[in-house]
Amino acid sequence: MAFNHLPAGVHDALVPLSVTPVTDSVPMAKNHRPDRSPAEPGSRPKPGMLLDRLASGPSRAARITHTEHLPPRAGRHAVWPDRIRPEVLAAVRTAGIEHPWAHQARVAEHALDGDSVVVATGTASGKSLAYLVPVLSALVDGSEAPNGRGATALYLAPTKALAADQCRSVKELSQPLGTSVRTAVYDGDTPFEEREWIRQYGTYVLTNPDMLHRGILPSHPRWSSFLKALKYVVIDECHTYRGVFGSHVAQVLRRLRRLCARYGASPVFLLASATAAEPSVAARRLTGLPVVEVADDASPRGELVFALWEPPLTELEGEKGAPVRRTATAEAADLLTDLTVQGMRSITFVRSRRGAELISVIAQERLAEVDRSLVRRVAAYRGGYLPEERRALERALHSGDLLGLAATNALELGLDISGLDAVVIAGYPGTRASLWQQAGRAGRSGQGALAVLVARDDPLDTFLVHHPEALFDQPVESTVLDPDNPYVLAPHLCAAAAELPLTEEDLKLFGPACEELLPQLEAAKLLRRRTRAWHWTRRERAADLTDIRGEGGHPVQVVEAGTGRLLGTVDAGAAHTTVHEGAVHLHQGRTYLVRSLDLEDGVALVEQATPAYSTVARDTTAISVLETDVEVPWGEGRLCYGSVEVTNQVVSFLRRRLITGEVLGETKLDLPPRTLRTRAVWWTVTEDQLDAARINPEILGGALHAAEHASIGMLPLFATCDRWDIGGVSVPLHPDTLLPTVFVYDGHPGGAGFAERAFHTARDWLTATREAIASCECDAGCPSCIQSPKCGNGNDPLHKRGAVRLLTVLLRGAAEAE
């Protein structure tokens, strides 16, 4: 029997579990609560004092495992290059900025020289102004051209919210420049009547990679005057373009560069990120161009107090009698409540959409006990909301009408939310880059700020709150992306051929993998070679061949059965596990039961209900080795990397009582299996190694399963992924290896680079895994070490001590091999 641990967001067919852990419904522990009398208006304590208030009382204080103090820093000024238009400099001064920081001036200088440049400085360091000043100067220059459109600029953001926020900022800054700068957002929410005006007259167009891929590039003849004049392409928050999404965006940018060259333009790329390791290397891989790096942050910074917070153990028992900690969701809701009562503006980041809804509901209920007027000042923000709902929440947050927001990472990126006092992070967000992005949302006006990371009952979270050096003494992760992934490259070659026939000269732009792929695309009758070029052969749009976010097709619409009202959407990849028939679905604090799921039409019908249970999907997974690329001996064992095929099927769901997590029953489901061809790392052990580790057949499955769970939980420390990007399978006797084997695979077709990174860091990765299991205080295994919230086998069997002994023997072989 194979034991599996699945990723989320698998493209196309296989999409594993994406469920909230059972412990999210554990009742609150009896704990001391700080004074929740409403604060005096305008009171603003220093970060350390604010943390002391949150931690007041012996039970609360013991939850802080570490406090890091980042001291304030003075800024260093410079002067703008003299080639910047005086009107632009005057507009900047009108906005209250007399002199730039040194890094802003350097970025502007490179941009004016025609160098593509990446600015990688901290949050709230003025990166936007660094690229905006040369861009606006070029647009003002262009407005004096005979046709009034002598230069254009394109801005790419990973989210609609960030593009809308940047649009507001640019319009405010450029208002003194009049009609010389015509700024507009062009995305899926843009009304159709406005789109033609933007194509014809817009000079600074803000969009996202999805719209560039599906809307702008396929319709390039209608954008010809814009592309012909394109001088700058701004890529904001470029660190988010990693894994499969980053690989897709890299190919979209190559298609953009190709079309610009066709119209006689060669735009300069200006990239920005607050959290990037080796930023010039990552930017070059993303754009395909040489990129200059500006990483010396000259901006001032207020004090940041960063606390690591571990929730207490409760009196409850989880699966297999394991001890259960109070959930990060419940703990974060308490902190959000306390911050709101004290009049502090804050955001609580949480991993899941359901978690964001739960935190806001719990906080509102508790605020009602203190002051009912505060209830409306807390809300949830997540993907899947309708555009008008998102915009209303963003406006309320900007205006200060909202004091507290429970948000998914949709609000992690660069929104200019000034004046926040605190950020609460409910669970490690998967990478150090995301952690610092989220923490950087507070203190954006230069004042001091508080950040609190609340640990989940999870191997990595537990490890980090007791090993703060892994967070504070390490650089952010290197960006992992692979534009040559054939599952990524093939549809973009088709899309490029549909835009303009592909020539031999174009192949240099798209990379060396083209030579192997083009014959396959011809054999599949997607492309046809005529004379010296390849042409798209079909009537349908080539851009629709792929979803660049790897989410598996069009989102499933969640519709209220009685009224026909569209409540929101769920990613197609998560539909099997989150909106299957009988699932409990949360939306804006209301609970619904899924009546039916129509996969063909992409519709889930729901009806409002108040069930006393939550639902968790169960599934089965099988894995086969297609090709072994690299094999390294670890003593008698083997460490391997190569291609695999994973077959997964959601077969049932459990109903769990909200108060205790008790299983009320299991219901079978009839959903189709999904297959995934991807990349994996795997390791094997021999009979002699099992004897050395004292592993008998009765505990072998549990030892392998426990090691698999913990290793998946620890991998985000070594690769730019989170545990929902990857999956795993452990098998006591695998038919391809004929040995006990543990697999960890990328949850995306063709791979995302995570398994490859795991292979290259395997010794450090598995050593940290062994330490995390061995140092956990539980007896037989718990969510802090070997239990997984998304295990398709209900965390059975697991053997904690066996996993430690097994990894010890495996790593001893690795040491002998070096």
Automatic annotation (TrEMBL):
Pfam families registered for this protein in UniProt: DEAD, Helicase_C, MZB, WHD_HRQ1
Family matches, as Gene3D superfamilies: P-loop containing nucleotide triphosphate hydrolases
Protein origin, superkingdom: Bacteria
Keywords assigned by UniProt, alphabetized: ATP-binding, Helicase, Hydrolase, Nucleotide-binding
PROSITE patterns: HELICASE_ATP_BIND_1 (PS51192), HELICASE_CTER (PS51194)
UniProt region (Disordered), positions on chain: 25-49
Record domain Helicase C-terminal: where: 331-487
Domain Helicase ATP-binding: 108-294
One GO molecular-function entry: helicase activity
Database matches in NCBIfam families: DECH_helic (TIGR03817)
Protein name from the UniProt record: DEAD/DEAH box helicase
Lineage: Bacteria, Bacillati, Actinomycetota, Actinomycetes, Kitasatosporales
